[in-house]
Amino acid sequence: SEVKKIAVVAGDGIGPEVVGEALKVLKKVEELFGYQFETEHGLFGGIAIDEKGTPLPQETLDLCKNADAVLLGAVGGPKWDNNSKELRPETGLLGIRKALGLFSNIRPATVFDCLKEASTLKPEVLEGTDLIVVRELTGGIYFGEKFRREGAGGEEAVDTCVYNVQEIERIVRQAFDIAMTRSKRLASVDKANVLETSRLWREVVNRIAPEYPEVELEHVLVDNCAMQLLRRPSSFDVIVTENMFGDILSDEAAMLTGSIGMLSSASLGEGSFGLYEPVHGSAPDIAGQGISNPIATILSVALMFRLTFGYHDAAQAIEDAVKEVLDAGHRTGDIAVDKSKAIGTTAMGDLIIAAL
Amino acid sequence: SEVKKIAVVAGDGIGPEVVGEALKVLKKVEELFGYQFETEHGLFGGIAIDEKGTPLPQETLDLCKNADAVLLGAVGGPKWDNNSKELRPETGLLGIRKALGLFSNIRPATVFDCLKEASTLKPEVLEGTDLIVVRELTGGIYFGEKFRREGAGGEEAVDTCVYNVQEIERIVRQAFDIAMTRSKRLASVDKANVLETSRLWREVVNRIAPEYPEVELEHVLVDNCAMQLLRRPSSFDVIVTENMFGDILSDEAAMLTGSIGMLSSASLGEGSFGLYEPVHGSAPDIAGQGISNPIATILSVALMFRLTFGYHDAAQAIEDAVKEVLDAGHRTGDIAVDKSKAIGTTAMGDLIIAAL
Ligand SMILES: CC(C)[C@H](C(=O)O)[C@@H](O)C(=O)O
Ligand SMILES: CC(C)[C@H](C(=O)O)[C@@H](O)C(=O)O
């Protein structure tokens, strides 16, 4: 089969450690399934600021553009927190999303049965929870005009939230498509009782809905959604929402599963290209200790196989291997109930490879 | 003592029922403590749309302006959901906040020990949770310019989020003041890694912080806060944030207590004037059946006594009476484990009055 090019941007904190384990899995998949991958590394985030003076160097962007998919670790850390905007890791993250046209962020919030005890929710409430948040990623208040000005009440800051019909249509269609492959329930989240962008959002959703007569659609206000995720998480299937609401709700949804160290995400544009990364952050407090959990990043590779390459056999094998290792009771510190029995990053990676 | 004027706007759905019980409590307090209240009713929300053609009639606004405090039930319902913006109950709510200068919404998220089982969170996680969300209420994306325009990607909607230094200062000072009366911990929530308004927010918070050296301040990003509320709710004391984030986080915080039918809120401006209302909505599905829970509204009266009138003795008496009735096992349907033993709205009100 064709050689697939993967741009690897490991980033900061635990990024390089967890990506390292994912690359070992990639190698093993080559051996086992005969697929071929060409990986090339790029500097991104804090480390790129340190070495190149910008969080997203042009050569990294070119590397990503020439690849079939991107594997991202994590970016950021206290070292860069007080930098000016252009010299912050997050600016690189926003920049790469926009430059690669990744308008859709897909975050499955899956409950791993063997990890249920790790959730702060009661197990009976969590029962059957398996939802996906589809978040618009290149529009809204993240990318609208931002400025300061003088006003009557002193200095004033302004952020602008903008959405056009086309931006809403493409993400909403994608969410309906995903719902069609699952339980066919879609919750569109907005704040239509206050925001003009939300009213347009709801109009577009209602206009597209008749194209998907099998999908059961509900409109949920964002404040209500924040509540319902806690009250009835298992009643959600696919949630689609705009950038800022998606940022908040996808983190809430991830946390309620109790499996945040296990969750992967995909950022997609038009076509099959995608950027894959763990949901967790760069965890600077534990970086370099070899105790981070590589599972979310390894599962991000599985997601890449499914969504970008269509390598469903290898994806399934990875997911099964992870399950097997967890079922056998192996845990990294973040998900261990008995912390004294926790294993390290490399040990976890090796166990998964052995189970493959 | 002086006669206190209370404007009563019962609103829609279960609003009138729950307010009815709160008024009975008010009467009982007059008898028991010798305080004097003059209550006058105004039309507001859906009922005002039906009867006056606007959700916030001028005479209702005048009534509120001439009062010492306002007691609000709840507004809204499916009947008005598809109305144009000016003819929607929520527009009245936004209008009354702005017109009365109520820039601060204070929502205690208290766990009632006897209701712990009603939460979807594990009791050990909830243990010790007692937090207050202080939400900015008259600024931000709620009140900025909103419009539609034609763009390259079709019709476009725009919302503007604006904050000035003065608006941020007054709410932040209030939050610090509240923290000083409690455990002296303040979490300021923003999205400073993306939004200009959040960067200004954080600057102002940092500038004011030295005035309160005893308060332990942390800055929390909104997405992280949505997670931490689930992971470590008891670690929060006072949370202060802007309008939109506060809308979402205060609902999430309320829901995790499991006591949403019990929570009261205050909206305050400069001086002692305030508007008090239950956190729950108008619940049109159960309106008129006499089964709604009046406790949140009754506790809103207690909050009014504390924050506007300084009647701490009567406030304490109401809070104690509520606790006594709950401890005796009485429950309305929303908080009953055994629904067949649930009592109605009036019965609950009567029990609380008897316990006073
Ligand atoms: C780091 C930050 C800019 C980013 C976002 O808000 O999009 C992060 O929270 C995420 O969700 O990927
Ligand atoms: C009804 C709506 C406009 C309102 C808001 O968003 O402020 C409500 O959700 C609230 O929190 O009081």
UniProtKB/TrEMBL annotation, chains A, B:
GO MF terms held by the record: 3-isopropylmalate dehydrogenase activity; magnesium ion binding; NAD binding
Record bears the keyword RNA-binding: no
Residues annotated as site: Important for catalysis: 142, 191
GO annotation, biological process: L-leucine biosynthetic process
Occurrences of domain Isopropylmalate dehydrogenase-like (ranges): 5-352
GO CC aspect terms: cytosol
Keywords: Amino-acid biosynthesis, Branched-chain amino acid biosynthesis, Cytoplasm, Leucine biosynthesis, Magnesium, Manganese, Metal-binding, NAD, Oxidoreductase
Cofactor details (free text): Binds 1 Mg(2+) or Mn(2+) ion per subunit.
Cytoplasm in keyword set: yes
Binding residues for substrate: 97, 107, 135, 223
Catalytic class of the enzyme: oxidoreductase
Location(s), subcellular: Cytoplasm
Assembly notes: Homodimer.
Function summary: Catalyzes the oxidation of 3-carboxy-2-hydroxy-4-methylpentanoate (3-isopropylmalate) to 3-carboxy-4-methyl-2-oxopentanoate. The product decarboxylates to 4-methyl-2 oxopentanoate.
Protein name: 3-isopropylmalate dehydrogenase
Species of provenance: Paenibacillus algorifonticola
Gene from which this protein is expressed: leuB
